Amino acid sequence: MEFINRNYDRDERGRWFFQNGPQRVFVALDYTPWVCRLDDRADALVTHTGRTMGPLEQLLLDEAGAMLVVAQPGVAVIDDRDLAALMERLGAENASSAGIESVLERPLVGLFGRPVPLAGIRAEDVPGRFAFDPRPVPPAGMPECS
């Protein structure tokens, strides 16, 4: 697994892939290129590849209640198992629609000891705004693995 995590990357066209020697296998994304979990011990967010997210630049909430974070290495969706705990840290009473609405009323929230801008976003706008291709395919005539 460490090998796969170490070789997860993107190309100049925003297509995410796993590089296995000479083979490049493109990755279909369910939402964002990164998924992150709350690491209470480190008081941080950690990606699915084990990287600690850099300083948070922005938090985004979509119309379905998914929370995204913008930081290095890029845009990430918060694993839904951590959403309630993260909403509590943001001061919401719960992760219900009412709790989310109460958080969205504030343009700036505190997380991990620093202020972070908070805004809404439509899920369909995420790939374009963050320049990634959620359903990458190789160029015409090229095999799925190149």
What is the structural class? alpha+beta
Largest sheet: 7 strands, mixed
Percent strand equals 25-35%
Trace the largest sheet across and list its strands. Answer: 5-4-8-7-6-10-9
> How many strand elements?
10
Cα-based radius of gyration, to the nearest Å: 17 Å
Runs in which pLDDT lies below 50 for 5 or more consecutive residues are none
Envelope shape: globular
Determine the number of helices (DSSP H or I, runs of at least 4 residues): 4
What is the mean pLDDT? 85
Q: Bin the helical content.
A: 10-25%
Explained architecture:
The chain is an alpha+beta fold and 146 residues long. The chain has a domain at 33-129. The protein contains four helices and ten strands, in the order H-E-E-E-E-E-E-E-E-H-H-E-E-H. It has helices spanning 2-6, 83-89, 97-104, 126-129, and strands spanning 8-10, 16-20, 23-26, 34-39, 44-47, 58-62, 67-71, 74-78, 108-111, 114-121. The strands form two sheets. Strands 5-4-8-7-6-10-9 form a seven-stranded mixed beta sheet. The protein has a three-stranded antiparallel beta sheet with strand order 1-2-3. A hairpin with a 2-residue loop joins strand 9 (108-111) and strand 10 (114-121). The chain is globular and about 50 Å long.
